[in-house]
Fold:
Amino acid sequence: MSEHLDLPSMRVGYGAADSTGADGVVEHLDTTWLTGDPPWPALFQRWLGEAVAAQIPEPNAMVLGTVDADGRPATRTVLCKGADADGVVFFTGYDSRKGRALAANPVASVTFPWIAMERQVHFRGRVVKVDPAETLAYWQARPRGSQLSAYASQQSEPIGSRADLVAAAAAVAAEFGGVDGQTPVPVPPHWGGYRLEPVSVEFWQGRADRLHNRVLTEDTGTGWTVQRLQP
Ligand SMILES: Cc1cc2nc3c(=O)[nH]c(=O)nc-3n(C[C@H](O)[C@H](O)[C@H](O)COP(=O)(O)O)c2cc1C
Structure:
C-alpha cells in the first residue's frame, strides 16, 4: 500500500522565517512562561483553551501510553475529562488492556497531539484511580447510550461478531428499561476514572527548520524545575 505513497517526501514545515507559527504566537516558548507551583497548569490551560478556540477536532483527545506486566508498551487515545494541578483525568474500563497494565505498572504518559496548532504537550507520572464519587459524577453526565455501551462492554476482550456485540448491548438496555427508559444505569463495577499525577510536563512548539521550542518542567521531589531542551 505505502509503495504508492511517497512517504519520504511528506513533511510540513512549521512556522515562518520570522519564527511565528500556526499557533499565531510571535514570541518563542520560553522557560519564563512557566510560573506557579506546579508551573505547568496555567500554560496548559491556555494552550488547551486555544486548541478549543481553534476548533481542532477533539482538542481534549490525548494519547495514553502504558507498560504491561511483561514490559510491553501500548498506546491508545482517550479523552481528557479533567485537568488541574492534581493531574489529568480519563475514564475507561478497569479490566481493559490498559486497566490491567495500570494495575501492574501504575505509571503512564499522555500526549496531547495538537498538530494543527504545531504544538504538543507530553505528561509522565504516576496513575491512581479517582475517587468513586468522581467517577459517579462523570458517569451521570454521560449520555444514556454511552452508559449502556460501557455497561455491556468487557473492554478489550474478544467477541465473535458485531451481531454478538449489539445483542449484548440490547440485553443490557432491556435490563434497565430500554434505550429510552428511565431506570438509571448504575456505574459498572469494571468502569471508572484514573488520574495521571504528573512528575514531568513538556511543552513543544514547532518552529521553522525543525528548530523547535521545548520546555520541560519536572518535579524533582524538592520542587519543580523548568528547563529548555534542544529540539
Ligand atoms: C478520539 C478517541 C477518544 C477515545 N476516548 C476513550 C476514552 O475516553 N476512554 C476509553 O476507554 N476509550 C477511549 N477510546 C478508545 C481507546 O482508544 C481504546 O480503543 C480503548 O480504550 C481500548 O484500549 P485498550 O485495549 O488499550 O485498553 C477513544 C478512542 C478515540 C479514537
User: Anything to note?
Assistant: The pocket of flavin mononucleotide is lined by residues 58, 61, 74, 76-79, 90-93, 96-98, 155-156 (CB under 6 Å).
